[in-house]
Structures are given as C-alpha cells and as structure tokens.
Amino acid sequence: MYERFAHEYAAHAEDSSYNALYDRPAVLGLAGDVAGLTVFDAACGPGLYARELLDRGARVAGCDVSPTFVDMATKRTGGRADLRVHDLSTPVDWMPDASADLVVLALALHYFDDRVALLKEFRRILAPGGAVVLSTEHPMAGWLRLGGSYFLEEPVEESLSPDRDWPIRAWRRPLTAICAEFRAAGFLIEELLEPRPVPEMAERYPEDHAKLERSPAFVAFRLVPSRS
Q: What is the rounded distance in angstroms from the CA atom of residue 149 to the CA atom of residue 187?
C-alpha cells in the first residue's frame, strides 16, 4: 500500500509528531534494553526503528513488502541490518526457529487479514524468553473517526492522513478482539501501553500534544509466549 507514496511517508515519519514523538518512543520503550539481542523488525518501513535498534546495540533483521522502503531502510542503516523484501502474509522462511530475541511490529498489525497466522509465525522465530512488541491504532481512535458501532470488525479503506492522498486498507476491531487474537496465537500480554506524547511535542506540535493528552491514537503491547 505504501509503495506509491513511500518517499513522502518516509520524510513525514522521520520527524512527525505521531511517529517520532509518540509511537517510536512507546515501542522502543517497551523493547527495553536491546544491546546484544537479535531483533526482527517486521514491516520495517523506511528503517526508522531499525536504525534506532542498531544504535542501541541490537543485531537487526527485518522485512517489508515495499521494495522502496527496504532500499531506504538499507541505506538508512548503512547496510548493518539484514533487510529483505517480503510479504508477511507468508512465512519468513529465512528466519530459523527460535532465532530472534525480540520481534518489533510498529503500526502494521491492522493491515493484515490473518493476524493470528502472522503472530504464530512470530512465535515460531522467537527464542526462549523472547517477546513481541507491537503498536496499532487504538480502537477508540478508530471509532471516534469512523463512527458506527465500536464493536464492528471490518476492513476500512481511507487515507492514512486526512490531508494527503495516501490510500490504505486497515481493519477496525474492538480491544476485546485484538486481545483474543493474541491469545489464539499463543501469547500473553505482559504489558499494555496507551502512550502519552513526549514533552517535546508540546513545544513543537502543541495542537497534537493537546489532542493526544485527551485521547490516545495508538496502543502498544509487549507480548510473551504462553506456556501452553
């Protein structure tokens, strides 16, 4: 979906309020100390998370379905990460079982039709003691924007940004459904985070800061495999 506007989106995400000062701090905070860990950056986009993970001492592999994004991510990380063009609706067959200490999936879960299969594949590649850190649109944010019943589970076609022609297709789901999919894939929620904007946003993007202090746009999770 992003291929047509990949360069525009990458320039936006580098320093935007919702990406740079809201989601990335939340996701990287849940990732914790990654020094010495092998991290799989799923749907790596233009490499903004991969670069930060590498700078924090991780070994990084990852993929994205967009060739433009993978090229940008490879350049952004200086070739230090093993990044490949791959559709995550199919298995990441180059990643052996138990080969990643952490999987990161930032703002992409809602694009997949079979999210349980995707999460099961993440569980396959996780080493013992590993975790998945992911973020997605907060169900309440979708309901406030789209209306109708909060409990609807359906794909929605709209623009990623209201003032740009960035068409996407994403699922709206209530929080109950999101959590049920984690359980069906064999995960437990270790931590659930409704992010707060970082203080810098108040100075640089005061309107966005005020909005996000009233109502969350995203929700993030740290998942660990269940014992069963």
A: 27
CA dihedral 141, 142, 144, 149 (to 10 degrees): -130
Q: What is the pLDDT of residues 34-79, one digit of tens each?
A: 999 999 999 999 999 999 999 999 999 999 999 999 999 999 999 9
Per residue in 169-227, pLDDT (tens digit) is 999 999 999 999 999 999 999 999 999 999 999 999 999 999 999 999 999 999 999 98
Q: Which residue is it, tokens 């079982």? A: 97
Q: What is the 3-state secondary structure (H, E, C) of the chain?
A: CCHHHHHHHHHHHHHCHHHHHHHHHHHHHHHCCCCCCEEEEECCCCCHHHHHHHHCCCEEEEEECCHHHHHHHHHHCCCCCEEEECCCCCCCCCCCCCCEEEEEEECCHHHCCCHHHHHHHHHHHEEEEEEEEEEEECHHHHHHHHCCCCCCCEEEEEECCCCCCCEEEEEECCHHHHHHHHHHCCEEEEEEECCCCCHHHHHHCHHHHHHHHHCCCEEEEEEEECCC
Listed by start position, the domains of the chain span 3-225
CA–CA gap between residue 223 and residue 191 (Å, rounded)? 7
CA atoms within 13 A on the CB side of 158: 13
Fold of 3-225: Rossmann fold (3.40.50)
